[in-house]
Write a structure and sequence with these properties.
The complex is a heterodimer of chains A (about 375) and B (about 140). Chain A is α/β, with parallel strands linked by helices and about 375 residues long. Chain A is built from 14 helices and 11 strands. In chain A, the strands form 2 sheets. In chain A, strands 3-2-4-7-1-8-11-10-9 form a 9-stranded mixed β-sheet, sandwiched between helices. In chain A, helix 1 packs across helix 2. The longest helix of chain A is centred in the N-terminal third of the chain and has 16 residues. Chain A is globular. Chain B has about 140 residues and is mostly beta strands. Chain B has one domain. In chain B, the strands form 2 sheets. Chain B has a 5-stranded antiparallel β-sheet with strand order 6-5-4-7-8. In chain B, strands 2-1-3 form a 3-stranded antiparallel β-sheet. Chain B starts with 15 loop residues before the first helix and ends with a strand. Classes of the chains: A alpha/beta (about 375), B mainly beta (about 140). At the A-B interface, helix 4, helix 5, helix 6 and strand 5 of A face strand 4, strand 5 and strand 6 of B. Strand 5 of chain A pairs antiparallel with strand 4 of chain B.
């Protein structure tokens, strides 16, 4: 696929973040969309492509007053938005549409008109996982962790450093939900949720959302915002059941999506200035660093514990504080994308000086799906 | 008998043999007659080579503890803390289950420990496959 000819021209999160008791879920989509349109000087009449997850493009297009000629309702969990970016870029390059709006809104905390998540008892998950007592992601996502720790000799203290370093980044972000510093002892003494993980190793539950507007790189030059170019993209899925992952120490979906994006961008790992790895739980940055090839197998926990991804480290990671400390509505991928865009625009609260390339890697479900986007502020 | 609040699986035409097996005290797996792949969860074709030429056989019931969490939150039908485990069957496939006849602690639940299948009746139709430390 031809790439590098599409850019983000509009980007914004919802006006509020964290607890938003005065907006329903669909209004969170609209609030973010209106902010993103204002960001780049467009209105609904200028949009001809719509993508969103869980809420359908039908609902969002109608609510916003858009008449699209291209829609994408891919809903594979929290990385759906990375995949929307990939599909939108392909659609723009193929001439199917010119200006795509991708929205996310989720009343994850206040639960106002949230679409309920149900697992039918006749589904494979309903037959072969639910009868054994899982209740949502905190009980399922950490299941592979003990196998990873035994395989590579990783300690609970090393694992805890993921939460500690991300809190350091969060402290630099006024919009982050949790900003107070924490220590390894704080993490390891926090309330047990699902051994080996405690509450400080699990993501937040927030209300919020975000929106992105994409157009051709050629048109991007006419917008008031600094264009953020899409250099490469990747996507994949593995299994809806965490128990059926092929390898508990690695995500197959990560291992397809990440390297596909890096290859499409034509960049090497050393070229990457800024990295986002969707952290619904504390082991995800470790799996992401290894599956994307930033670290050798079994070394990512020590890499993080050695402060390489912390403020001042050589590979700034999850600079908004991540799902662990910034915000997590249920599907976090849009927030990771927003931080990559801010970093590429040079407007992030914890700005990485001189950053030119940002890799944004998402997960969906419990290692079920993945999407990776590589951004740059340099015209390709 | 299982706690009646425990989520109850609903068999489908493709999985009926599995639940008939557990009701009869057997753990049943499927095997491809073309490529010899043994697989789980049930489906009437091979996920490795796409052949429909597959058969059903009784598994040994032997397994090892592959990974787990010890869940500390309240869930209807369960008394925390309880382990949600994934076991690796001797025949290769992995499945989610619970570990019984064993303290639900990191000290007692050691990865790779040998396990054997046991069965928990929910009602006249559904019996769940659980695992316990292997005897002898």
């Amino acid at each position: 696929m031809r790439q590098k000819s599409v850019a983000i021209v509009g980007a914004s999160e919802t006006t509020g973040l964290g607890t938003i008791p005065n907006m329903s879920q669909i209004q969170l989509h609209a609030d973010a969309a209106l902010n993103a349109m204002a960001d780049c000087g467009l209105t609904a009449k200028d949009i001809d492509g719509v993508a969103c997850a869980v809420e359908t493009p039908v609902q969002i297009a109608h609510y916003l007053g858009i008449t699209p000629s291209w829609v994408d309702g891919t809903a594979v969990g929290g990385c759906s938005f990375m995949i929307h970016v990939r599909h939108a870029a392909a659609a723009i390059e193929a001439g199917l549409c010119k200006t795509v709006l991708i929205t996310h809104g989720e009343s994850g905390k206040s639960r106002i008109a949230q679409i309920p998540r149900t697992i039918p008892p006749g589904s494979l998950n309903g037959q072969f996982e639910q009868p054994f007592g899982p209740m949502g992601p905190p009980s399922l996502f950490p299941i592979p962790v003990l196998r990873y720790m035994k395989t590579y000799g990783v300690t609970h203290e090393q694992m805890a450093m993921v939460s500690v370093t991300q809190r350091e980044w969060a402290a630099k972000n006024p919009r982050a939900t949790f900003k107070d510093p924490i220590t390894v002892d704080d993490v390891l003494n926090s309330r047990m949720i699902a051994y080996p993980f405690r509450i400080l190793q699990c993501c937040l539950v927030s209300d919020g959302g975000g929106a992105l507007i994409l157009t051709s790189a050629e048109r991007a030059k006419d917008f008031p915002t600094r264009p953020v170019y899409i250099l490469g993209t990747g996507e994949s899925v593995e299994t809806p059941m965490v128990s059926q992952m092929a390898d508990f120490t690695s995500s197959r979906a990560f291992s397809v999506a990440g390297p596909t994006a890096l290859k499409a961008a034509g960049i090497a790992h050393k070229d990457v200035d800024h990295l986002m790895i969707y952290d619904a739980f504390a082991h995800l940055p470790i799996y992401g660093l290894e599956d994307l090839g930033f670290c050798e197998r079994g070394t990512a926990a020590a890499f993080i514990a050695g402060r390489n991804t912390a403020p001042g480290g050589k590979l700034p990671l999850n600079t908004n504080g991540g799902g662990l400390s910034y915000a997590h509505s249920g599907m976090y991928g849009m927030f990771a994308l927003q931080e990559s865009v801010r970093q590429m625009r040079g407007t992030a609260p914890a700005q990485v000086a001189g950053a030119k390339i940002s890799v944004c890697h998402g997960v969906g479900g419990m290692f079920a799906a993945s999407g990776t986007i590589i951004f740059s502020n340099q015209a390709p | 008998m299982a706690d009646e609040q425990r989520p109850r699986p609903q068999p489908t035409p493709e999985t009926a043999h599995f639940w008939e097996g557990t009701r009869a005290g057997e753990l049943r797996l499927q095997k491809c007659h073309d490529c010899a792949k043994v697989y789980f969860p049930p489906r009437p074709f091979c996920p490795q080579c796409s052949s429909r030429n597959v058969g059903i056989h009784r598994a040994s019931g032997k397994a090892s503890l592959h990974s787990y969490v010890i869940h500390h939150r309240k869930v209807p039908g369960f008394t925390p803390p309880y382990a949600i485990a994934v076991v690796e069957l001797a025949e290769g496939p992995r499945m989610m289950t619970n570990i019984v006849d064993c303290p639900q602690t990191p000290e007692a639940l050691v990865l790779d420990m040998p396990l054997e299948v046991t069965f928990l009746k929910m009602d006249d139709e559904i019996t769940l496959p659980l695992f316990r430390p292997a005897k002898g």
